[in-house]
Design goal:
alpha/beta; globular; about 290 residues; 10 helices; 4-stranded antiparallel sheet; 6-stranded mixed sheet; binds magnesium ion; binds adenosine-5'-triphosphate
Length: about 290
């Protein structure tokens, strides 16, 4: 099943349902995640909010088994933390990640970083070739299309370190477009980018979501989170809210942010007036334009 990744992605995959069951993570005496449970159905899009230190990044690292947990994390029914090394590699191949710090190799050309989205499909030799010489023709074409999609046409040869923060974030998204993952984990992908880039990055993530990928995005911007059909809030490692943005009251938000909206400067008293596409109303590819 895992090896049929591309096929299963195009035919509404049953294998990217994410089940988080009674997950706890402790760092010494600090319980970073405390009995967290929720399910993300295949193709869902969910915003994760919470104050600094609430456990958002820890949750993402628990899903990818970058840290050990007590409890279960199931992706497509397979328990990530009990998979063999090989099984884990295959499972991770299904997961596309974006981090606040981009996770790119700064010394490589941008296009090679984007091409590495295909690394799960490559053998060792092709991976090495991509590193040293660059992607082969067919892959280079997909990379160029992805770079164009994120507004970086013609910049594949530019050294990644010479790109701005926002441009690097877009390379990370281009890498996802090449990878076509079944589950996208984006940890504060908009933290270091301007509003226009935010919309562009969000748009590309939604396109992948429209193609069947589940989308889990951690955000500090509550207004942006409210444009997702489902919001999960963490507070001190526990799920403090899981539901629609409409039911997320001011009182609840105050509780989530400890009554300190300083940590969340983008929440306003204005009535909801999203500036970009309302993610909650988008279905599939509808409303998503190609750039
Ligand atoms: N490697 C680690 N070692 C020790 N403690 C850690 C480690 N990683 C995270 N923590 C602690 O776990 C808690 C949750 O941290 P986490 O990074 O998940 O928060 P977060 O919600 O992502 O915060 P932010 O919004 O600032 O990114 C914090 O108390 C943090 O100090
Ligand atoms: Mg974090």
């Amino acid at each position: 099943m895992w090896t049929n990744r591309r096929e299963s992605l195009t035919s509404s995959p049953p294998n990217n349902r994410l089940e988080i069951k009674r997950v706890s993570v402790a760092f010494g005496r600090n319980l970073a995640l405390d009995d967290v449970s929720f399910v993300i159905e295949a193709g869902e899009r969910v915003a994760v909010i919470g104050t600094s230190g609430a456990g958002k990044s820890t949750l993402f690292r628990a899903i990818t088994r970058d840290i050990g947990v007590s409890g279960e994390v199931r992706l497509g029914g397979k328990e990530i933390h009990s998979l063999s090394k090989r099984g884990l590699r295959e499972a991770r191949g299904l997961i596309g990640r974006i981090h606040q710090s981009y996770n790119l190799v700064p010394q490589l050309p941008a296009g090679v970083n984007a091409a590495l989205g295909d690394v799960g499909e490559m053998g060792k030799t092709r991976t090495l070739r991509t590193f040293l010489i660059g992607p082969e023709a067919a892959l280079a074409k997909r990379v160029e299309a992805a770079m164009e999609r994120v507004g970086l046409a013609g910049m594949s040869a530019t050294k990644t370190a010479n790109l701005s923060g926002g441009q690097q974030q877009r390379v990370a998204v281009a890498r996802l477009l090449v990878q076509k993952p079944g589950l996208i984990l984006a940890d504060e992908p908009f933290a270091a980018v301007d509003p226009v880039t935010t919309e562009r990055v969000l748009d590309a993530l939604l396109e992948l979501n429209g193609g069947g990928a589940s989308l889990l995005v951690s955000l500090h911007d509550v207004e942006l989170a409210k444009r997702f059909p489902r919001v999960v809030a963490l507070k001190e490692g526990r799920v403090a809210y899981d539901g629609s943005p409409e039911s997320l009251s001011k009182e609840k938000l105050n509780d989530i942010y400890d009554g300190d909206m300083e940590t969340n400067p983008k929440e306003s008293d204005e009535p909801d007036e999203p500036t970009g596409p309302d993610v909650t109303r988008l279905k599939g590819q509808d409303g998503i334009s190609a750039h």
